[in-house]
Amino acid sequence: MSTINTVDAGATSLLRFATAGSVDDGKSTLVGRLLHDSKSVLADQLEAVEHASRNRGQEAPDLALLTDGLRAEREQGITIDVAYRYFATPRRRFILADTPGHVQYTRNMVTGASTAELAVVLVDARNGVVEQTRRHAAVAALLRVPHVVLAVNKMDLVDYAEPVFAAIAEEFTTYAASLGVPEITAIPISALAGDNVVEPSAHMDWYGGPTVLEHLETVPVVADPSDDPGRFPVQYVIRPQTAEHPDYRGYAGQIASGVLRVGDAVTVLPSGRTSTIEAIDALGQAVDVAWAPQSVTVRLTDDLDISRGDLIAPTATAPSVSQDIEATICHVADRPLTVGQRVLLKHTTRTVKAIVKDIPSRLTLDDLSQHPAPGELVANDIGRIVVRTAEPLALDAYADSRRTGSFLLIDPADGTTLTAGMAGTAFAEAAADAAPADAADDEGWDF
């Protein structure tokens, strides 16, 4: 099979990354330093920061003020959410998800890191690895974030001592590696002084690795989509039925993973019907091949009953379908998730009714122990669930595909998002193999 030409880590590539760290570890200052030293701050923004810093009696600009305004509002209870920031250097473009550091906002890190290709986890050099550090590493592992950077901050407050950095790096690396994090890069920094953030530090000549920005600019993130199985969730069926196109039937959507080619034998799920790709239209032009994450219209040789929510996949690598889903979830709603609860399950473009059949365990992130049969999961809890859906779904294991292995549970009464789910096993197995609990049968939900 021929490969698709992809962009390397050059000027046109895009890196999505998330920052995480405990309160007062200096995350705001790091983000501000990255924006400032990479020349990504507008003149009027910098002037406002300088003015605010002078009013506080500070001689130098407090770069944390570039982000702290929104964070202060969140911490006062006005809103609790992820803040996204966009910046670029001559080598790469970036989308930064700045996540809150409080323990009770673990769900917000899940939101910010769910699409990230890299996570920066901050540690205060004076405190070392703390419970929240382990929690952030565990969430990154659960979400299969491929690259993790440990930024050991405030090295200036420990006299830039190499043994302090080495001990923290070893402890974190050992813990994160035990979770299955594939790549860990430890960097000693002082966000306040600018050491090893954008420019190399003159105070740590014992460190020979990259700065934070250098690593962000060069870490490989663009993979060959040919390595992944093709997945095409149908979003919209196009049937103009005009005199010019009387027989046109196209299926529009965004390719979730892999590659589609004209002539490919495909299977439509969950029905299992088969056909062949007759044509692919991209941006109004016919193409022979398309790959993720392009938005295209696919036409098949056979006139099949296909609608929104169906999944088109190459027959040779088509996923299996099931109504019973075992998954690791992070509960994001304030109302608990309970056994027997009726929910809607949204997977790609498909939404179906479902019942929570069992909650076998809740995960304790500080030591990765499993609390069996908790009965319910509350906000920020991570646990294992078993769900029964009203209709078959074609889910991949989350370990194989972050896009088609993830789903949401939604409250059918008001549309509130309850839970973010990851199909299949996570880094830790449930401690007990409890049998699914019976759920009461209500009309329309008996399946």
From TrEMBL:
Protein's name in the database: sulfate adenylyltransferase
SUPFAM superfamilies given in the database record: EF-Tu/eEF-1alpha/eIF2-gamma C-terminal domain, P-loop containing nucleoside triphosphate hydrolases, Translation proteins
Occurrences of domain Tr-type G (ranges): 12-226
UniProt xrefs under InterPro entries: CysN_GTP-bd, CysN_II, CysN_NoDQ_III, G_TR_CS, GTP-eEF1A_C, P-loop_NTPase, SO4_adenylTrfase_lsu, T_Tr_GTP-bd_dom
Matches recorded under PROSITE patterns: G_TR_1, G_TR_2
GO terms under biological process: sulfur compound metabolic process
UniProt superkingdom: Bacteria
Pfam families, per the entry: GTP-eEF1A_C, GTP_EFTU
Keywords tagged on the record: ATP-binding, GTP-binding, Nucleotide-binding, Nucleotidyltransferase, Transferase
UniProt-listed Enzyme Commission number(s): 2.7.7.4
GO molecular function, a single term: GTP binding
Membrane-spanning segments: none
Top-level EC class: transferase
